[in-house]
Design brief:
Structural class: alpha+beta
Distance between the termini: 26 Å
Shape: globular
Order of helices and strands: HHEEHEEEE
CATH architecture: Roll
Length: about 140
Protein backbone atom coordinates (compact mmCIF):
# COMPACT_ATOMS: atom_id res chain seq x y z
CA UNK A 1 0.00 0.00 0.00
CA UNK A 2 1.16 3.50 -0.82
CA UNK A 3 2.52 5.20 2.34
CA UNK A 4 0.73 8.42 1.39
CA UNK A 5 -2.60 6.57 1.36
CA UNK A 6 -1.87 5.05 4.78
CA UNK A 7 -0.91 8.45 6.18
CA UNK A 8 -4.06 10.06 4.74
CA UNK A 9 -6.19 7.25 6.19
CA UNK A 10 -4.63 7.64 9.65
CA UNK A 11 -5.12 11.41 9.50
CA UNK A 12 -8.71 11.01 8.35
CA UNK A 13 -9.39 8.64 11.26
CA UNK A 14 -7.70 10.99 13.74
CA UNK A 15 -9.82 13.94 12.62
CA UNK A 16 -13.10 12.01 12.21
CA UNK A 17 -15.52 13.12 14.97
CA UNK A 18 -17.63 9.94 14.76
CA UNK A 19 -14.63 7.59 14.86
CA UNK A 20 -13.39 9.50 17.92
CA UNK A 21 -16.85 9.48 19.53
CA UNK A 22 -16.99 5.69 19.18
CA UNK A 23 -13.43 5.34 20.51
CA UNK A 24 -12.21 3.33 17.51
CA UNK A 25 -8.48 2.58 17.57
CA UNK A 26 -6.90 1.20 14.39
CA UNK A 27 -4.46 -1.64 15.05
CA UNK A 28 -3.69 -2.84 11.49
CA UNK A 29 -3.71 -0.90 8.24
CA UNK A 30 -2.64 -2.80 5.13
CA UNK A 31 -3.63 -2.74 1.49
CA UNK A 32 -7.15 -4.15 1.45
CA UNK A 33 -7.28 -4.89 5.19
CA UNK A 34 -7.97 -2.88 8.33
CA UNK A 35 -8.35 -4.00 11.95
CA UNK A 36 -9.56 -1.93 14.89
CA UNK A 37 -10.70 -2.13 18.49
CA UNK A 38 -13.54 -0.26 20.13
CA UNK A 39 -14.44 -0.23 23.83
CA UNK A 40 -18.11 -0.81 24.65
CA UNK A 41 -19.70 1.93 26.73
CA UNK A 42 -22.84 1.65 28.87
CA UNK A 43 -24.56 4.20 26.60
CA UNK A 44 -24.16 1.77 23.66
CA UNK A 45 -26.08 -1.04 25.34
CA UNK A 46 -29.76 -1.88 25.40
CA UNK A 47 -31.76 -2.32 28.61
CA UNK A 48 -30.65 -5.97 28.86
CA UNK A 49 -26.95 -5.06 28.66
CA UNK A 50 -26.41 -6.30 25.10
CA UNK A 51 -24.80 -3.94 22.58
CA UNK A 52 -27.25 -2.10 20.34
CA UNK A 53 -27.25 -3.34 16.73
CA UNK A 54 -26.74 0.20 15.48
CA UNK A 55 -23.38 0.31 17.25
CA UNK A 56 -22.27 -2.87 15.48
CA UNK A 57 -23.56 -1.53 12.13
CA UNK A 58 -21.71 1.77 12.61
CA UNK A 59 -18.47 -0.06 13.41
CA UNK A 60 -18.88 -2.40 10.41
CA UNK A 61 -19.56 0.51 8.05
CA UNK A 62 -16.53 2.40 9.35
CA UNK A 63 -14.08 -0.51 9.17
CA UNK A 64 -15.26 -1.93 5.83
CA UNK A 65 -15.16 1.59 4.42
CA UNK A 66 -11.64 2.25 5.67
CA UNK A 67 -10.55 -1.10 4.16
CA UNK A 68 -11.99 0.09 0.83
CA UNK A 69 -10.18 3.38 1.28
CA UNK A 70 -6.81 1.55 1.38
CA UNK A 71 -7.45 0.46 -2.23
CA UNK A 72 -8.48 3.92 -3.44
CA UNK A 73 -6.21 6.44 -5.19
CA UNK A 74 -5.11 9.20 -2.83
CA UNK A 75 -7.01 11.89 -4.75
CA UNK A 76 -10.34 10.04 -4.31
CA UNK A 77 -12.68 9.17 -1.44
CA UNK A 78 -15.17 6.38 -0.77
CA UNK A 79 -18.82 6.59 0.22
CA UNK A 80 -21.06 3.76 1.35
CA UNK A 81 -23.61 2.88 -1.32
CA UNK A 82 -25.09 -0.21 0.36
CA UNK A 83 -24.48 -2.28 3.49
CA UNK A 84 -25.89 -5.50 4.91
CA UNK A 85 -25.24 -6.57 8.49
CA UNK A 86 -25.97 -10.03 9.86
CA UNK A 87 -26.16 -10.16 13.65
CA UNK A 88 -24.95 -13.63 14.65
CA UNK A 89 -24.89 -13.46 18.45
CA UNK A 90 -25.60 -10.96 21.17
CA UNK A 91 -22.57 -8.78 21.90
CA UNK A 92 -22.03 -8.98 25.64
CA UNK A 93 -18.66 -7.77 26.75
CA UNK A 94 -16.22 -4.93 27.13
CA UNK A 95 -14.64 -4.53 23.69
CA UNK A 96 -15.39 -5.03 20.02
CA UNK A 97 -12.73 -6.01 17.51
CA UNK A 98 -13.41 -5.49 13.82
CA UNK A 99 -11.60 -6.86 10.79
CA UNK A 100 -12.40 -5.26 7.45
CA UNK A 101 -11.16 -6.51 4.12
CA UNK A 102 -11.71 -5.79 0.45
CA UNK A 103 -13.21 -8.65 -1.53
CA UNK A 104 -13.22 -6.90 -4.91
CA UNK A 105 -11.57 -3.54 -5.56
CA UNK A 106 -12.60 -1.61 -8.63
CA UNK A 107 -12.05 1.69 -10.38
CA UNK A 108 -15.51 3.01 -9.42
CA UNK A 109 -16.81 0.56 -6.80
CA UNK A 110 -15.22 -1.57 -4.08
CA UNK A 111 -16.87 -4.51 -2.32
CA UNK A 112 -15.75 -5.04 1.30
CA UNK A 113 -16.66 -7.20 4.26
CA UNK A 114 -16.25 -6.82 8.00
CA UNK A 115 -16.28 -9.32 10.86
CA UNK A 116 -16.96 -8.07 14.38
CA UNK A 117 -15.89 -9.95 17.48
CA UNK A 118 -16.89 -9.22 21.07
CA UNK A 119 -14.35 -10.51 23.52
CA UNK A 120 -13.14 -12.93 20.78
CA UNK A 121 -16.61 -14.29 19.84
CA UNK A 122 -17.86 -13.56 16.31
CA UNK A 123 -21.04 -11.49 16.78
CA UNK A 124 -21.67 -9.88 13.37
CA UNK A 125 -20.65 -10.02 9.74
CA UNK A 126 -21.28 -7.26 7.22
CA UNK A 127 -20.80 -6.68 3.52
CA UNK A 128 -20.89 -3.39 1.72
CA UNK A 129 -20.52 -1.64 -1.59
CA UNK A 130 -18.44 1.54 -1.57
CA UNK A 131 -18.39 4.08 -4.39
CA UNK A 132 -15.10 5.70 -5.36
CA UNK A 133 -15.76 9.44 -5.66
CA UNK A 134 -13.99 12.76 -5.98
CA UNK A 135 -13.65 14.46 -2.57
CA UNK A 136 -16.55 16.70 -1.58
CA UNK A 137 -15.54 20.29 -0.92
Amino acid sequence: MDKAVEQKLRERARLNPYVNFLGIEFTVIEAGRVEARMPLQEEQKQYSGVSHGGVLAALADTIAGFAAYTMTPIEKDVLTAEMKVSFLRAAWGKELRAIGYVIKPGRNVHFSECEIYCDETLVAKASGTFCVVHPQV
